[in-house]
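Suppose you are handed only these lines of text.
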Amino acid sequence: MTLPRIAIASLGGTISMTPDAAAGGVVPRLSAEQLAASVPGLSEVANISAESLFQLPSASLSFPNLLAALAWAERQVDAGAAGVVLTQGTDSIEESAFFLDLYWQREAPLIVTGAMRAPQSAGAEGPANLLSAVLAARSKDSRGRGVMVVMNDTIHAARWVRKRHTLTVQAFESPETGPLGVIVEGIAHYFHPAGTRPPALPPVSGDVRVALLETYMGDDGQIAELVRAAGYQGLVIGGFGAGHLSFGFAERMEALCADMPVIIATRTGAGPTTSATYGYIGSEVDLARRGAIMAGWLCPRKARALLWGMLAGGIGRCDIARAWKDWHQNLR
Ligand code: ASP
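From them, the structure of the protein bound to aspartic acid can be written out as follows.
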């Protein structure tokens, strides 16, 4: 039987980290080949090719790094890979996988995985995660589902997944929807058929700066003014509750929105922003009247990735509200 070809690339993260006495802790060092070689039985389920793209802690991955990984993944599929797996640090998977999903148009799955425990820790789960990721990548049922995150034998949509714990191996959840599926006895099982996907963003034509702030009691919006003065092209705010700010912050909103798109998400960790429930100063109705855009279901980090993609793709400041709404039409 011919095995499907699965291309693996490593970007760094705990899954690839080994102890370094001088650094005082583990640092990314293992290559993709070494990671693949550490997984028992991997060569029995797929014909693996492995390449190291970056060796970074995931806090230092950038959108340009991810665009390079995306182009690499597209080349692998165009050259016959049935699926692609990227290994990276778990700290930023919720935004990196979402960012990749904004652009990934191939039917073949692009799976992102990592590990909470470094390879030499007792119970290191990197090899199990990599095996599950490859099993998901080779499954025909994974086709047409875009970018997914596989951790702890659980498959999550890039659009919904969040890192909800600093250390446990069960750190990833999709609080709004639950996971897409699970890996059982070597097979990827999905609970629902593939849904519709938002259209791809326009290709990136330049770099932009988009800031992300979280509001807090007593926040009068002065830091947002500094963001504007520093020349950022966009701002996302993790607002209170369903997308709210203080009186003082709300009163700055017209001036902020005159210079850049401002997206209001929620800092709560789950649930959407509202659009027509509260009417007080600083509520969603008030902020939208002043020019802000409500994030909807996207968490602040994913909202920032989407706003960056729209602006970097050349969508003008005044067209962001329309583009935001259109993109959300297909969000499932
Ligand atoms: N700090 C690590 C990183 O994101 C954590 C991990 O990989 O789990 O690179």
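What can we learn from it? The longest strand covers residues 47-56. The chain has eleven helices and 16 strands.
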